[in-house]
Structures are given as C-alpha cells and as structure tokens.
Write a structure and sequence with these properties.
The structure holds two protein chains of two kinds. By secondary structure, chain A is an alpha+beta fold. Chain A contains nine helices and 22 strands. In chain A, about 50% of the residues are buried. Chain A has helices spanning about 95-100, 130-135, 140-150, 155-160, 190-205, 255-260, 270-280, 315-330, 380-390; strands spanning about 5-15, 20-30, 35-40, 50-55, 60, 65, 80-85, 105-110, 165, 225, 230-235, 250, 285-290, 305-310, 335-340, 345-350, 360-365, 375, 395-405, 410-420, 430-440, 445. By secondary structure, chain B is mainly beta. In chain B, a hairpin with a 2-residue loop joins strand 11 and strand 12. The radius of gyration of chain B is 24 Å and the shape is globular. The chains are: A alpha+beta, B mainly beta. At the A-B interface, strand 1, strand 3, strand 4, strand 5 and strand 6 of A face strand 1, strand 2, strand 3, strand 7 and strand 9 of B. Strand 3 (about 35-40) of chain A pairs parallel with strand 1 of chain B, so a sheet runs across the interface.
Chain lengths: ~450, ~290
C-alpha cells in the first residue's frame, strides 16, 4: 500500500489529439481514497463532445470521450443512450461492453451489480481460480481489490472510455439482497461497517460527484439529471432505504406483507422526492434509472401466483403509490429502466396488473445482464412462463447483452443487443428486437 | 499489487470515468499534523507456533478499534520475515465511533513454506504510528507417530477450490461437520460439472494401504457419491478402488499396500452440484 499522495493533471480538449485544450487543472490522488480523483469540471459547452485525459509524472492515461448534457432550455432532436447491468466477471467475457463502446452513445446508464462480492466458483476466463478473484469481499481493501480486478477488463475500459456514465449500485456492490441495515443474519453493527467499506470503494471507483461521496454507511445515491427539455433522469436507490424483504425473501405468493402500505422499496422520503420531481418535470421523457423490475412478475404456471420478494412485487404498495401518483398527476412518458433479473423483460406498467383493460401509465424496459448467468438462450422455460402468466409483458429474452436506445421528441426506440455467447471470447453481438414507445402513448410497440 | 490510480472526471452535467493502470511517481507531501489517531491496533495471538508442514496454515487476527468520538477509516499493513508467506498484507476498514467500542478484525493466513529453517520469524503489523509484532516460531516437523494420518498438513492438491473455501481445508485435521460454515473442508469451484478431484502429495514416497474420507452431511444429498481412489504413478493416475452410490459420511477403503508420492479421490458424481469433503485421511501399514 502506497502511503504517498500524488498530483494528477487533467486536461479537456475538443479533439481526440488534444490540440484544442479548453480546460486543465490539477487534482490530488491520496491513499485515503485509494488514489482516485474526482474532477467536477464546470463551464463546458452544453451538448458538446469532449475528450479528457490524466497525467501523473511521466504517465499519461488513454483519452476518454464524453458528451456534456444539453442546457436546461435546450430541446435535443435526438439522444442516444445505453443501459446495462450485472457483470459477473467469472461468468463470461464483456463482449457486450465492446459493442456498447463502439456505438459511442451520448450517455450510458449502469444500473448495478458492477462487481460481485461473494466467494464464487472458478470462472470461464484464464486465471479465474486466483483467490483474489474468487474470495468474498468484506473489508475495504477486499472491495477495492475487486474493483481493481474488474477494471483491468479491456472491454469494460472501452465502455467507460466511450461515453459519460451515470451509475447506481444494486445489491452486489455490497452483499446479496441487502436491505437497509439488514443482510442475512449479520448483526446490524457489523453489516454497517461492511456497507461503509462497500460504499467507499464504489464511490472511489465510479464516476460520482462529491454529493455522492459516502459518509460512513450513508450515501446519497438517488439524484436527478436533466437533459434539457428532452429527458430527465431520476436515478433511484431501492436498496438503502427499503424495508427488509417480506416473507423471508425468495419467490412467494403475494400476501398482506407484500401489500403492506407501511412498507416501501424506496423509503417514504425518496418516494415523495420522486413523485414531486416527476410532477414538476418539463421534459418530454421522464426516465427512471434504477435496480429492479417495477412490473408484476408471476413466475408460476396456472392459477397460483408467486412473485419475487426482492423486486417491487415485494413492495406492491410502493408500486401502487408510484403508478397511481403518475396517473393522478397526469405525468407523461415515464420510462422505467432497470436490471437485476439477468433477463430482458419489457412491460406495460398498468394501474392494475390483474385487469387487462387497466390503464397503462408507464413503460418498463428491464435489460438483461452483461454476463451474469453465462450464455443463456433466447427464451428459457422461465421466460416462457413469464410471458404466459403476465399479459402486460410484451417481450422477453434470456441471452446476455445490453440495450441501446434512441430518444427523440416523438418516440423512444430500444434496441436489444444480445451476444450469441459470452463464455468464449469474441462472441457475436446482434439485434434481437427493436421496440418503441410513442410520445403520449405508454404502451410498447414493435418498431 | 501494483498501484493503480483511478481517475474519474465529472464533466458538464454528466460523470465520466477512466481507470488508469499506470503507476505514478510524482510524490506530493502528505498532509501532516492531523488530529491524533484514536485507533487502537492489536494482533492476536501474541505469538504463534508452526511447523513447516505446507497445509497447516496458521493464522493471525488483526483488530482495529476506534476509541474516539468520530468515525474513521484506518489501515493496517502487514509484513512477514522471509520465507513466511501471508495470505494478504493490507487491512482497510471503516471504524464506527460506537459506545461500547466496536472492534473490526480481519484474519490473515500465515504459510510456512516447505524447507523453512526452524527458528523465529516476525510478522510486523503497523497502523499509523502503532506497531505490533507477532513472532512465529517454526519448529521441525515432528516424526509421525505410528498409525498417524499421513495426509495431515501435507500439500493438498485439487482440480479447483471454491472462493469460500481453502485448498488445505480437508487436510487440516478438523472433521467436525459443524465447522463447515467456518470454511474448514473442501468444496470444488465448478458447480454442476464433474469430475472433480482432491488429494495430497508428499515430498517423498509413502507406503499407504487405507484411505478414510469424511464427506459433507447429509451424505446422500451433500456428499460425494461415485468416485475412484487413485495413486500417482509417475505422470499418470492409477485407480486402486472404486465406489458407486455412496451415502455414508465416513468411507473407509483398504487396499494392498502401495508406494506413491500422491493420492487423490476422483469424484464422478456428488449428491449436489459440488464435491465436498470435510477431511481426507491416508494411513499406512502398522
């Protein structure tokens, strides 16, 4: 461990060869933050492409590309966006990231499970039986080591390099299915130490600003980002303030506990912040960037119903308040983007999922994983059951990949990029489906 | 590990980042004169005794405790006299300001490589200005008593080992089923994929005529089911016994004496997706 601090010079240019440098400065990389620097550059032109790089001593970083957000009054004619999640490094190659990088989107949303904390099997990559890759992360040095390893992946580096990222964590940046101060049988005081360690390493390794810097086990992750008049992103935190999963977690029949109005997946302050923000939004598209599915997911065939306790199904009163609030306040063009399920699930979000005539008030695209779950297949048995049991679900896929979107004032287009294989290097990425949402019409359509 | 600078840039409304894997060499003065640390360092046990058997990795626990009024992050750095090998050399953690104090600990494995000369070797633990030294007394390997388990503490070998377990877990002399959760025992790292194998190798050939396997209980659902016992013949493995449909926790297999430098169990099927052993024991003729 190097106890010294280092100065790091940064530069921003309008060209990739840094002939036109428009901003430069110096930041300090200290051991307290694992030699990370977080530079929040102000005064750049809105909706412009820039390149940035870092220098320390005689070492110069590769150049990264970014694109600034438009000015608040500006209406973009088009915005390209990718969203991705769930990258278990030992389960495959990050081929999807390579494809994502090549498209040089205007912005990338990473919706959690950037690392996995648990002790795991030997993976499919050479060297995957290295203890540093397979052991569990609990202490800060162990979480840092995990990020350091993930960040050696050249495809992941390319994805970071290709576009600005807006990141939120899910559960595995901390521990499987944690909920507020609860994580399995771990005593709360011990878990909060682990949570603080995990948050610290997450902030150090992600492009997050100072307001997101954790204070011990507390971190202000939920936040709003405006893209002019075209889009507004409400980035949510459905882990830190939720009630513990009902009925011992797992997949269970909905009951009084899952519908209990005193329980919340966001926590009541964040629920209010979200609906208040949506109410005052002047953007055409109101995007929710978050962790897991809002839609009803009945996972069993026949009249019985069993839903995941970890998704919004386990907190259906939160879902009712959100979707009901969207309807009551007349909020248009709400698009929910999430991950966590390791499968693509596209749904119309209706006020009452059990009534096929119920009003559709929002649209949800749950994206599949980058690698988690290995190769998968187009439609597995579980995916077929989901499509049969959930008529509001319009499309499903169980391959690995990400979603590339184009957003205009008239329509939202989601293109589902899937890998034929991830358990071998250099898999082929292709478009499995294109689905659209027309402005003013929440229902999903074929593009 | 090589030092990595993580540089993250937040530009014009959106955050962007890049990981920079190049070491940097421009030293800047560290801030001095900070508030006096109220973190207390301790390492336990105070002294460790070890023998040079490669699979008896002993361990020490490093504990950091915040006795102050403000929460802090703290680091402990470990250094071992050569040729001792530590499983890790850094411990960094958040330390809440709790009342009563809340100690936070991390365990470090200490390995004594074969051929280490008997003597005392220090493990030095530092945190800020505090220092603690744990002496490790390495003793010669005692001669094995007649009838002793020849695998105990010897070099384990395996096709793979799951991240929650250690390679040496099934030759550590602990066959208490209730300790499985504390990571004694061996579990392979290829879920649903067989065969897996686990065994032991010696620096010199041994004469053996009995293998006793202790598998995870309940054996019918967690244990090893179909397997071969094999001895090493030069570069290849030769099967000396086969078991099909095992449902017992403790499997004793005797065979005409063999002279070999390595022995293993080749598992073709387990009761679950994994091969799991609590203890692997090998005995020679009396």
């Amino acid at each position: 461990m190097d106890r010294r601090a280092y100065s790091v010079q940064w530069e921003i240019a309008t060209d990739e060869r840094f002939r036109q440098v428009v901003k430069r400065g110096t930041a300090k990389a200290t051991p307290e933050y694992s030699h990370s620097v977080h530079v929040d550059v102000r005064g750049l032109k809105p909706a412009h492409e820039y390149y940035y790089r870092f220098r320390s001593g005689r070492f110069v970083s590769p150049a990264g590309r970014t694109k600034t957000a438009p000015a608040p009054h500006q209406m973009l004619s088009s915005l390209t966006l990718a969203f991705a999640s769930c990258q278990a490094s030992w389960e495959g190659w990050f081929t999807a990231h390579r494809d994502l990088a090549a498209r040089r989107h205007d912005v990338v949303l990473f919706l959690g499970d950037y690392i996995y904390e648990f002790g795991n099997d030997r993976g499919v990559r050479p060297g995957d039986d290295d203890l540093l890759r397979t052991r569990q992360a609990v202490t800060l040095d162990e979480y840092r080591q995990r990020y350091a390893y993930y960040k050696t992946d050249p495809d992941l580096q390319a994805a970071h390099q290709s576009a600005p990222w807006i990141a939120v964590f899910d559960d595995h940046e901390v521990v499987d299915n944690w909920a507020d101060m609860y994580a399995g049988s771990t005593p709360t005081n011990e878990f909060l130490v682990r949570r603080a360690n995990a948050f610290r390493a997450y902030w150090e390794n992600m492009p997050l600003r100072a307001p997101q810097r954790p204070n011990g086990p507390e971190m202000q992750l939920y936040r709003r980002l405006q893209y002019g008049q075209l889009a507004e992103f409400s980035m949510l935190d459905t882990r830190q303030y939720r009630n513990d999963q009902a009925n011992g977690d797992g997949t269970k029949a909905p009951n009084a506990a899952t519908a209990d109005p005193t329980r919340s997946i966001l926590g009541f302050p964040q629920e209010k912040w979200l609906l208040d923000g949506l109410s005052t939004s002047r953007a055409t598209w109101n995007v929710l960037g978050h962790q897991t599915a809002i839609t009803l997911l009945d996972t069993v065939s026949g009249p019985n119903v069993a839903v995941p306790m970890d998704t919004w199904d386990g907190y259906s009163a939160s879902r009712d308040r959100l979707l009901g609030g969207i309807d009551e306040r007349g909020i248009k063009n709400v698009v929910s983007l999430a991950g966590d399920l390791h499968r693509t699930v596209v749904s119309d979000l209706a006020l009452d999922f059990n009534d096929p005539d119920s009003k559709v008030v929002a649209t949800e695209f749950v994206g599949t994983s980058i690698t988690s779950g290995q190769d998968g297949q187009d439609l597995d048995a579980g995916g077929r059951v989901l499509l049969e049991e959930n008529p509001h679900m319009k499309f499903g896929n169980f391959q690995r990949g990400y979603v590339s979107c184009e957003i205009t004032p008239d329509a939202w287009l989601s293109e589902f990029r899937v890998c034929d294989r991830v358990t071998v290097p250099n898999g082929t990425v292709s478009t499995r489906a294109r689905l659209a949402v027309e402005s003013g019409v929440a229902a999903v359509q074929q593009a | 590990m090589k030092k990595t600078v993580i540089a993250t840039l937040v530009a014009g409304g959106v955050a962007v980042g890049v990981a920079l894997a190049a070491p940097v060499d421009t030293a800047v003065a560290s801030p001095e004169g900070k508030a006096r640390s109220e973190v207390v360092l301790s390492a336990s046990p105070a002294a460790v005794s070890a023998s040079e058997l490669p699979c008896l990795p002993t361990s020490i626990a490093v504990t950091l405790t915040n006795t102050g009024a403000e929460p802090v992050f703290a680091d402990a750095i470990l250094e071992a006299d050569r040729p001792l090998v530590l499983s890790d050399t850094v411990f960094s953690t958040y330390l809440p300001a709790s009342n009563p104090d809340q100690p936070v600990a991390k365990s470090f494995g200490v390995q004594v490589p074969r051929g280490t000369k008997p003597g005392t070797y220090d493990i030095t633990v530092t945190s800020g200005k505090q220092k603690d030294v744990v002496p490790v007394t390495v003793r010669p390997v005692p001669p094995r008593e007649p009838g002793a388990n020849l695998a105990y503490g010897e070099q384990a070998i395996a096709s793979s080992t799951h991240g929650n377990f250690t390679l040496c877990g099934a030759v550590d002399g602990d066959r208490d089923q209730s300790h499985w959760d504390t990571l004694t025992g061996w579990n392979d790292a290829t879920s649903g994929v067989f065969p897996d194998w686990y065994g032991v190798e010696w620096p010199t050939a041994q004469t053996i005529d009995r293998i006793e396997l202790w598998t995870k209980t309940p054996a019918a659902t967690n244990g090893i089911r179909d397997f071969d016992l094999q001895v090493r013949d030069g570069e290849s493995w030769r099967t000396i016994a086969q078991v099909i449909g095992n449902a017992q926790e403790h499997i004793v297999t005797t065979f005409p004496a063999e002279r070999t430098d390595a022995v293993r169990v080749l598992v073709h099927l387990g009761g679950s997706n994994y091969s799991r052993l609590i203890e692997f024991e090998v005995y020679g003729p009396q």
